[in-house]
Amino acid sequence: MPVDMLLVNPPSPDRSIIIRDVNRCGRKTRERMIWPQTNLAYLASLVRDQFSVEIIDAIAEDINWDKFKQILKDKKPRYVASNIISTTLTNDMYIMFLAKSLGAATIGMGPHLTDRPEESLIRFPSLDFAIMGEAELTFVELIDVLENNGHLEAVKGIAFRNGSNIQINEERPFIENLDDLPMPAHDLLPLKKYRMPFFGQYTFIVAGRGCPYSCIFCRQNVMWKNVVRMRSADSLLREVKYLLGLGVENIMFQADTFTANKKMVKELCRKIIKEKLEFKWACNTHIATINQEMVDLMKQAGCWMIAPGIESCSNKVLKNIRKQITVKQIYEVVEMIHKAGIEVWGYFVYGLPGDTKDTLEENTRCALELPLDMANFAVAAPYPGTPFYRQAVENNWLVSTEWEDFDQNYSAIVDYGYLKPDDIIKAIKKANVKFFSRPKHAWRIFKEMFKDFSMVKPLFKILMEHLSWVKGKK
Questions:
Q1: What is the dotted CATH code of the domain comprising 198-436?
Q2: What was the pLDDT predicted at 197?
Q3: Which residue of 124, 280, 353, 417 has the lowest C-beta tally within 10 Å?
Q4: Mean model confidence pLDDT for the chain
């Protein structure tokens, strides 16, 4: 049946699992983590009263390009909008080509287009409009102008073709109060498809945007410009109840730094405890924003996992990337969370400015020493628009300018001379083998496979994919 609007998470170029988001430059995930498309649900909630709208999550639904082409022909949308990420740029723009060939207006968004709107519009003629920065209000105004033959020059936050020229309009100010946004249209998402190992079925609640810190590799510098906006505890609680009503029992509070506003987090925890809401939840955070009182409340309120960005166990590297923490703080906070009975999933980044073979070895030793329940070892990717990218260009560190190589799970593309791309990849492979081959973690993987038989096949695929990657030359 035809619809006015399709909001799309595009198919994968090679059946791999892709992480896409309005605030992500993206990556392939060996963990086969299905990333909830809550940001598309926000867009849908803003237009569903005026238009027929559907969300197509091709990653969650395992929709290939042939099937997606048929969906486009059947739905005949007037508008197609999608997040566009650096690491699958050409693949993602194919959606614009297909939609445009059927007469739809095409709209892209995300950090890549935010940083490179002109380049993207020139290279991909099928892209009609690039939304720069925060998408919601720009999207609504753009659609209104297109529906009523208004003036595109007046729409803040877009880039488009004006005759033979590319016009880049004035930036749109951020939404001051995120509570003003409507409830995301979670009901339009394939909620039962959002799963990941050791996490189970889950989805996102967007708790805030921006981070008070300025790590040089983080794409939030591009999207949110270090402006921190957190939703209120009452607003988050309403969304929790809504999702519980939809059958979701495991929630990730998605924010660059969930605990940036300690007062809000503690208020939310007290409300969850008072109302005796039973659900599991987790969050990402920054080491410097954690304290004992808050961790204890989070545990009482059902928090089962906190994932801090550790990045490095070298004080020199931490200083170089503007992390604003020390190795001593890392050990203290991880131990604090662990002792509170909350799982700690640590994120490490290998190949940052200042890294050497010795610091990468230190990262691995640190990961083995810390009481981490899970660890992720990523490649330092200088995503477009970040200070790290500018450093890499200025110092001639880049060994590739193909955006598809900017994948923090697979491609090392910086060469410091004393530290080569191959050195970085080898160190990450070694870290994975050492961390996950320990009896405790090997046993956990085995138990996870057989506690839920529906996970046996997916976990076996993950295991095989990791083994193939470790043994591979690239």
A1: 3.20.20.70
A2: 79
A3: 417
A4: 93
